[in-house]
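Let's practice the habit of predicting before peeking. Look at the sequence and jot down your guess about where helices and strands might fall. Then scroll down.
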Amino acid sequence: MKHKTLALLLVLVLVLPAMAQEKTGIATAQFLKIGVGPRMLGMGGAVVATGMPEAAMAFWNPAATARIPGFDLFFEDNEWVAETRMLSGALAYNLKNVGTFGATFQYLDYGEMTRTDQDHQDGNGTFTAYDMAAGLTYGRNLTDRFAVGGRAQWIHMDIDGYTADGWAVDVGTLYNTGFQSLRIGMALQYFGGDIAFDGTYGELLRDKSGYTDTEFTANVLPMTFRLGVAYDLLEGDDHFMTVGLDAIHPNDAEERVNVGVEYKLYRIAAIRAGYQVNYDFFVGEDEDADSFAPGLNAGVGFNIPAGGMNIKADAAYADMGRLGYSLRFSLGFAF
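Done guessing? Here is the structure:
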């Protein structure tokens, strides 16, 4: 079994990055790439190998849900950039020898915006837009060291009544190497077909004499491959510290790196810090940019035992350079 496990890991390392390079160009459904979970974002998103036993890990590496001992419920409110707001949630339940089943959802509200066109440069009423996704997850321990998982989700986008629908699949693995606490995790996210909005739109003719009905172009999903390692520097009940590093290969951007650390005191209170390298946000020379340190993430969390269950409250801050910053809060229950 050990040799088969190592062989499978090698295949994933060699094949999945190649799959992520099959399609290039501008990807749609970018909201899928917004990180979910203050605990995960507090570590800068360097969590694919940590094996956190939480339902929110389904957004990062569904294999980690196999480590959930019982039932876990998670809900997040994210004050995203440009006055947008995203609500996310997940639940998971471990059926012991069968595996861990769960569900996820995301809803991004863009709010109300002014509609403009060639003939109405100053505005012609308002419109709304939103994106959403709902998925089912499964994780299972194949051995005491190796876990696999997957997620299938439906994607829906709506802009002023124009809609687009599609499907995506995530697969992930989590492997405890046996060398002290070193873990390796991998995940392929948002693998699916191209998505196009329904109907047609009026495209302005080159001579500006009128419009012609044009079908919307189909675009690829933002398929992403993550490879990470994690290690526990401290493993006691009084003091516990985990560090993680993720290498990320998206199909619509350059390679990126996340690094992060989490420290727990008596496994009740936690502080986290992380940094994201080579992302699109930056300060540049804009002195008015609402930014402190682009790429910096930080967070705190509390795990409170209460009546046979644990109540989890987390918060995280993410500095996004020219885009400002994001604040997110979550509440969870585990029993």
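How did you do? Confidence is low (pLDDT under 50) at residues 1-24.
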